[in-house]
Amino acid sequence: MLVYRIGKEQYCNDLSGLGAKLYGGRWNRMGTPCVYTSQSRAMALLEYSVNIDLDFIIPKLSFTVIEIQDNLIEVIPMESLPSNWKAIPASSSTKTFGSDKLIQSSFPIIRVPSVIIPDEFNFIINPTNIDPSAIKIVAVEDYQFDFRIKS
Fold it and tell me: Are 111 and 121 in contact (CB under 8 A)?
């Protein structure tokens, strides 16, 4: 299966989860490394756009296309999520839930719904719990951000 992430060109080949470890995210506390990916380029772009301030967007970005193995994904049922998983900003219970899943699961990837479109999914990769041969960057594609998305 292919998943996608978008970001600065200098980080396109980085699957260490360092950014999420340093800053945290909806599904992880600071200190928990993970790599946020989405089921499509469009979903990755939407997630990026709602999570970054217009002043910090640089025009030249990259999509990283990553191949993952389906059997490594734990599908998290909607009814298992914290009741406030859609809260903005993300709740501490959601961060704890995701961090605990990433650390305790025998699966190195969790599938969670997007807050933007709950019928679409994000795939959160635990880089400390995955065999490097089970994840492969298959392409890096230049992307020029269209600022109409944020204006």
Answer: yes
Residue 15: DSSP 8-state: -
- The answer to whether 143 touches 63, Cβ cutoff 8 Å, is yes
pTM beyond 0.85: the answer is yes
Give the pair of three-digit tokens for residue 49. 């756009």
Residues of the chain where predicted confidence (pLDDT) is lower than 70: none
Domain assignments of the chain as residue spans, ordered by start: 2-149
User: How many Å separate Cα 129 from the centre of its chain?
Assistant: 16
Residues in CB range of 54: below 8 A, 6 or more apart:
147, 150, 151
> What is the per-residue DSSP string for 106-136?
SSSEEEEE-SSSTTSEEEEE-TTSS-GGGEE
- Determine the 3-state secondary structure of 3 from DSSP: strand
Q: What is the pLDDT of residue 60?
A: 92
